[in-house]
What we know:
Elements: H1 2-30, H2 35-40, H3 72-75, H4 79-87, H5 109-120
Helix pairs in contact: 4-5
Amino acid sequence: MQNKSSILIALAVVLAAGVAPVVAAENDKAKELTGRDVVFDRSKGNCLTCHGIPSDPEAVAPGNAALPFFAMKGRFPDRAKLRAQIWDATAANPNSIMPPFGKHQILTEHEVDLVTDYVQGL
Length: 122
């Protein structure tokens, strides 16, 4: 009987170990992507390469090739203009060094919307 109990305990441990990655994956899916996530992500927006975010202490080693993100609602009161700038800055300024994130499909429509909302809130 003791042997049977040991086998059941071992089986329970193995099954629990197999369930943990599934639960972790489901929790990752549940975490909704934010505009800040995209702005900070080097494989996506990578905005910190050029822009500083003075209001965010986690925005370490920001670039200074472009204006910092502050008072953005005052600078871009029209959300559509800010979104257009993120989508394709070269439309307004053909010499812009800012990548056309939407036009070149660096970011999805949804990610551009998230970044627009986040940046306008700074």
